[in-house]
Design brief:
Blueprint: E1 8-14, E2 18-24, E3 29-30, H1 36-39, H2 42-55, E4 59-60, H3 67-75, E5 87-89, H4 93-102, E6 105-110, E7 120-124, E8 130-136, E9 139-145, H5 148-161, E10 164-168, E11 174-175, E12 178-188, E13 194-203, E14 218-220, H6 222-228, H7 233-257, E15 264-271, E16 277-283, H8 302-315
Parallel strand pairs: 3-4
Antiparallel strand pairs: 1-2, 5-10, 6-7, 6-10, 7-8, 8-9, 11-12, 12-13, 12-15, 13-14, 15-16
């Protein structure tokens, strides 16, 4: 907590082991708080307000993002619409009915979800019935419904308790029949400009349709993954560069549309079978386990280096 004179606070640092004690008020803060509950607690909000207003301390990644907020913000930019699958906040049955009539598969994603938790895939079968498949820690749970209205009624409790985003299902590339997406990690660099730190492919685990490492997914190189995919050769040659450009476009667009300070973003992208790039979601507190492997020469993650460089930029160090 900040002391009464607001000259120091209690902190933890590493010096041949973790130590705790009084430290100066920081020159810059990177908010890596892991949960919304903690971030929104009165003590944390008071701390953030005090250091920002009384010391002009820059705070970046100062808030979590939710899926509806991101897609609505980016959808206002004509240049970014090409990356966005059709997506809405699921408020009623007519929204579900319209989306399921337009697409054979749709996804329901918790607006404030993370790590692939609670995602529901809804597929219209050839006989007019519907199947829902939900992610869980053990794998996936599948259910069949004779009508879409019965499926919606089964979800009504979840929808009332948590907000869900409904999103167009995409015909994405697969490797050995496993879904693939890509995590682009972007940072503000030592000049304060957005730059791509890494892009890695994430291949879903055998019993999941999501690719998060927390759900058994594995990392792979982008070029190797694209080379194994079944997309046109012309698209293969440009896919890696187009993903990097998409990540930069999205980061800049998000910064322009949402009044918050970000210095690090995890941008989840996908490639469909025609080679088109799509945005799946944006994370303002990206999981470090989904980053690129350690730098072999220095044993320091490139993302850690970029964060330090951006802090130096903010402080003029």
């Amino acid at each position: 907590m900040i002391g009464q004179q607001l000259s120091s606070l209690e902190g933890v640092w590493y010096d041949q082991g973790w130590k705790r004690g009084p430290v100066p008020v920081p020159d810059v803060i990177n908010n890596r708080l892991p949960t919304r509950k903690l971030e929104n607690s009165p003590s944390v909000q008071h701390f953030m307000k005090e250091v920002k207003s009384r010391f002009n301390t820059p705070i970046f990644n100062e808030k979590f993002l939710d899926k509806t907020e991101v897609f609505e913000a980016l959808g206002r930019d004509e240049k970014l619409k090409k990356y966005l699958p059709e997506s809405y906040l699921l408020k009623s049955y007519p929204v579900l009915k319209r989306m399921c009539a337009s697409y054979p598969t749709v996804f329901l994603k918790p607006v404030r979800g993370s790590l692939g938790k609670g995602i529901i895939r809804i597929t219209r079968q050839d006989d007019g019935t519907f199947q829902s498949v939900t992610t869980s820690p053990e794998g996936t749970k599948s259910k069949q419904y004779s009508s879409l209205s019965k499926l919606f009624n089964s979800l009504s409790g979840k929808i009332q308790k948590n907000r869900y985003q409904i999103q167009q299902g995409l015909n994405l590339i697969t490797i050995n029949k496993r879904n693939v997406d890509f995590r682009a990690l972007v940072h503000k660099n030592k000049k304060g400009k957005w730059s791509v730190t890494s892009v890695v492919a994430r291949i879903a685990g055998g019993n999941h349709f999501v690719s998060n490492l927390a759900r058994g997914g594995t990392l792979s190189g982008v070029k190797e993954t694209i080379a194994m995919s079944k997309i046109p050769l012309s698209a293969k040659k440009t896919a890696a560069k187009r993903m990097e450009q998409a990540a930069l476009d999205i980061a800049k667009g998000l910064e322009a549309a949402i009044p918050a300070h970000f210095g690090e973003l995890g941008i989840d992208l996908a490639v469909d079978t025609s080679g088109r790039i799509w945005l799946l979601e944006v994370n303002s507190k990206p999981s470090k386990s989904d980053n690129a492997p350690l730098n072999n020469a220095y044993k320091v993650r490139p993302s850690a280096i970029r964060l330090v460089q951006y802090c130096q930029y903010l402080t003029g160090f």
